[in-house]
UniProtKB/TrEMBL annotation, chains A, B:
It comes from the Bacteria. PROSITE patterns: HTH_MERR_2 (PS50937). Pfam families: MerR_1 (PF13411). PANTHER family: HTH-TYPE TRANSCRIPTIONAL REGULATOR ADHR, REDOX-CYCLING DRUG-SENSING TRANSCRIPTIONAL ACTIVATOR SOXR. Gene3D superfamilies: 1.10.1660.10. It comes from Streptomyces paromomycinus (Streptomyces rimosus subsp. paromomycinus). One of its GO terms (molecular function) is DNA-binding transcription factor activity. This is Transcriptional regulator. InterPro entries: DNA-bd_dom_put_sf (IPR009061), MerR-type_HTH_dom (IPR000551), MerR_fam (IPR047057).
Amino acid sequence: MRLSELSERSGLSTATIKYYLREGLLPPGERITATTAEYGDAHLRRLRLVRALVQVGKMPVATAREVLAAVEDESLDHHMRLGAAVWALPHPPGPAKEAPETTAARRTADELLRRLGWQYGLEVGPVSPTYGMLVNALAALARLGYPHAVENLLPYARLAGELAVADLDLVEEYETPAEQVEAAVALTVLLEPVLLSLRRLAEAEESHRRFRGDSS
Amino acid sequence: MRLSELSERSGLSTATIKYYLREGLLPPGERITATTAEYGDAHLRRLRLVRALVQVGKMPVATAREVLAAVEDESLDHHMRLGAAVWALPHPPGPAKEAPETTAARRTADELLRRLGWQYGLEVGPVSPTYGMLVNALAALARLGYPHAVENLLPYARLAGELAVADLDLVEEYETPAEQVEAAVALTVLLEPVLLSLRRLAEAEESHRRFRGDSS
């Protein structure tokens, strides 16, 4: 197909596709004449993945280029290829400096992961941005007078584990490794607001159940 | 206590406290001399609540003033007073215009809430910002080729319901209605990054369990 058809079928403007070509996120098409090139289904699939990383995941283009290299690296197993994409997604910044709350929060996070037996989290512990996000969130809770003990966090972690099973079940519905990576990125990011809004709706429901008519 | 002690015990600068006084978020202290006023424990508690709303919840000052009025309105029951605070928290914007995906997403959200029997969500449906956030997130999924059926969302909603039970259990550990409102706001907001980071850590764990060593 020509660029115009690629644009139509991918839903991306030709200018955006040319930008991705220039940045090396999309391999060049097969040159037909001096001014036209032919693109195939592989280009269409790649554009969906690029869109998942850059437009949905808000990943910087330079990071996306590295991630795409990892996703294509057949010397890596499927877990690493999925992980390269999902774990490179931007996170809120980790703790800036070691406030007293941060040290305590780090200890809590480590103990929580140890109790859960979440090896992956421990293995990459000090450098994982997701781990940094957790430590930061726990430090913020403590700073505002809501210290969270490991015991309070375990039910939350157990539910997060069940969410992850549901997430990976969805990912596995896709056939090819490339589609699975794309789905893992898109669903990780796009289901976050679904989860947060459902939690708030459920809180309203639970508050109604407990407190309605209670004017204490 | 004097302003300086109120500042020290609340952890807020005197400039911030004076700003809250001017904006009507904090009632004036008892005037002692022309230049000094005396503040009590009620001021200290109120400052914690204001901080939860404005600094943690990123609520605009004008909204916080309305919320504080509702929280103090003894003609409202406890559910409404909690809700006034939590549901006034800012959300990502709802759907801007009725794209075809938005209409379908709204139908899915309505059907989901009906199946769950979540009355509160249905009751305030079209105006609730949380409902708008859900519709928006479902429309974004569909736009990127990941349409979500009610059946896919039910397990997610069930887990969100369990999270809400854990949240309200924590809120009920606080004694007074004012402390509960404060905790509801702070925990709703501060536990969101905890939840999202635990979900990503759990996904890494689950991906490792399923795919490690699988280079397909």
